[in-house]
């Protein structure tokens, strides 16, 4: 039970750290002349970027803790999930680094090309996020297939992930191609991301399957 609670807590921590961090950072770089305001708001931008970096350790830790549980049922799925989580956090970290580079660039806001470079850094974070979430969608779908098959968690909860994560991946692909529907397509997966950690914290994995 303690093990499942730890995994559930990491699910929640990752969800909150990236969500809050991304919200803080991207709210500051949404306008056309955002570089001129970075100097006054650099603390918020740095805080947001570091919260995104925090998610890196959290997501890898979650996958590492999940590994021995999944390996009992399918080593291939366990390895695939771990690999996709590592790729995801690397991409998200690249996006966070791009956001951090905006801070020193803000000191040169009035110089030629600075705004263009700033826009490229913002776009880098956007693209890295979409690609990272696409990889997450693939890996988490594999996870949910195994959770459904083994009944480590209730099948209705696994099914919500099986529905939500492929839709999430489709939304990220649409965003990369300039079709801005990704935000709406995150909603189905939101249910799994919120309910799953609370289930693990309060109920845990099904004991007879977990052993």
What does this protein structure show overall?
The protein has 211 residues and is mainly α. The protein has one domain (2-210). The chain contains eight helices and no strands. It has helices spanning 2-27, 35-71, 75-105, 114-150, 155-176, 182-185, 187-202, 207-210. Helix 1 (2-27) runs antiparallel to helix 2 (35-71), helix 3 (75-105) packs antiparallel against helix 4 (114-150) and helix 5 (155-176) packs antiparallel against helix 7. It is elongated. The model has no long low-confidence stretch (mean pLDDT 88).
Write the layout of secondary structure elements.
Blueprint (H helix, E strand, L loop, with lengths): L1 H26 L7 H37 L3 H31 L8 H37 L4 H22 L5 H4 L1 H16 L4 H4 L1
Largest sheet, described in full? none
Summed up, the domain count is 1
Q: Could you give the count of β-strands?
A: 0
State the end-to-end distance. 11 Å
The secondary structure category is: mainly alpha
Query: Could you give the order of the helices and strands?
Result: HHHHHHHH
Rg calc:
19 Å
The low-confidence runs, each spanning 5 or more residues with pLDDT under 50, are none
Percent helix range: over 70%
Q: Let me know the average pLDDT.
A: 88
Could you tell me the strand content as a percent range?
under 5%
Individual helix count: 8
Overall form: elongated
Q: Features of this protein?
A:
single chain; 211 residues; mainly alpha; 84% helix; elongated
Summarize this structure briefly:
This protein is mostly helical.
